[in-house]
Amino acid sequence: MSDLIIWTYGWVPKGPRGFVRDLRLRWACEEAGLAYSVRTVAFDGRETNHLAQQPFGQVPFLSDGRLEMFESGAGLLHLARKSEALMPRDAAGEAATVQWLFAALNSIEMVAVPWWFLTVTGKDDGGLAGWMGNRLAQLERVLGERQWLAADRFTVADLLMADVLRVARLRAFGDRPASEAYVARVTGRPAFRKAHADQLAHFAAADASRPG
Ligand SMILES: N[C@@H](CCC(=O)N[C@@H](CS)C(=O)NCC(=O)O)C(=O)O
Fold first, then answer.
1. pTM (2 decimals)?
2. Which residue, 81, 115, 161, 197, has most beta carbons within 10 Å?
């Protein structure tokens, strides 16, 4: 029995299924061949019911024996340290991987999520589309020149960047063929497909026991 436990909600509405960020950790474990189990906290009451594990009431969080951590990026880095399949062991390869891991979170997701939220809710985007367009154009230039973000090979940075980019509205934003090919390539990996299918099955199974 593995010590690695990925925590997610027991149930979520249909909309976010396939995108709940426990998928990032499932996917990384699948890529690395790390055994793990999945446990749940309640979706209802999430604002307060697991603040000791995740101070914002969100998921995922990860436990590894006595160690616990929240933030999907931190969890990915933890898993990457366990497996060369996720991050090269040489200093240059590790530095390149970590830098792109942060770029996915802090340069792309940081603008993409608020833009997505304002678009979905029909609110004025306050100029975010322009900001995001610049970021995505710059990333398109990078991806036009290379297959992978770091170390000339698949790393956990590609896993995270592709997960950030694969949101339908983002994919439809502008014409970015290299980015589109990248997302298709990275999410075409068997480990992604398994993690994605497992998450969908997990929430679908919970529908049966959900009142109403
Ligand atoms: N920065 C956090 C974001 C976590 C996050 O947004 N989790 C979503 C699910 S993907 C959530 O728990 N949403 C419910 C809520 O915010 O109430 C991470 O990467 O772990």
1. 0.97
2. 161
Atom of ligand 1 nearest to the CA of 73: 19
Probe residue for ligand 1, chosen from 19, 23, 25, 58 as the CB with the greatest number of ligand atoms within 8 Å? 58
Closest protein CA for atom 6 of ligand 1:
58
Assign residue 141 the CATH number of its domain. Answer: 1.20.1050.10
* Res 209: pLDDT: 83
How many angstroms separate the CA atoms of 184 and 143, rounded?
13
CA distance 212 to 200: 20
Number of domains in the chain: 2
Residue 80 burial by Cβ neighbours in a 10 Å radius (0-12, 13-18, 19+): buried
- Give the residue, by CA position, lying nearest to ligand 1 atom 16: 58
User: Residue 71 is part of which domain span?
Assistant: 4-85+191-207
Mean pLDDT of 145-164: 98
Q: Are residues 75 and 125 in the same domain?
A: no
Residue 59's pLDDT band, with cuts at 50, 70 and 90, is very high
pLDDT of residue 211: 61
Helix (H, G, I), strand (E, B) or coil at 8: strand
Q: Whose CA is nearest to atom 9 of ligand 1?
A: 20
Q: Mean pLDDT, the chain, as a whole number?
A: 96
